[in-house]
Give the backbone structure.
Amino acid sequence: MQPETLVRDHTIYACVMGSRAFGLATDGSDTDRRGVYLAPTPLFWRFEKPPTHVEGPAEEQFGWELERFCELALRANPNILECLHSPLVEHVTDTGRELLALRGAFLSRRAHETFTRYALGQRKKLEADVHTHGAPRWKHAMHLLRLLMSARDLLRTGALTIDVGDQREPLLAVKRGEVPWPEVASWMNRLAAEADEALGISPLPESPDHRRVEDFLIHVRRASALQPDPYDEVVQGVVDGGRIG
């Protein structure tokens, strides 16, 4: 089965991410599409396993196989968690709705470490740009601020909201380079400190609900196994066409 077929025929959840989902889109913003596909269970019974992710087939499109998506979400991967909470859902099946109903099971205090670690890596890149070129990549600075806000609010409330709301204009001012770097750096420091403070009183559990997610995955794999094997259908078509035997 071709990767594009998995995306086309077996996607259970698809959404728009990036600036459009964050409430930061402008006229020139791309439309970044992300999705989750459920590879038919019989495909895992062969030596060649289905891909864990597929880039495309459209531009700015990327999808994960359900199991890989769940693994990353349980590790509190920021991009994956935000994908689950996009306000711009383009496609969802019944299985996709079950996945969305599990959003809370993936959330835990581990997000503090993963969000912070990612932010630190991005901060180092921005500071290198300032040292080399005298200014950071302002768009990246804007998105780092947004990520730090998201992490802080998640730890404070236990809910992940990715639309920036009334922070849109201050953040876009950063993107336009209208805010001096020292002020931006100070803003980042403040947000990071607020996230650290929120960790100690966060309503989030220490760890995600691994068992609940695993039960869901077993359930959908078992249901898929009861469906016709797509490979057998292809072979049968060849037999019926008189090219075998």
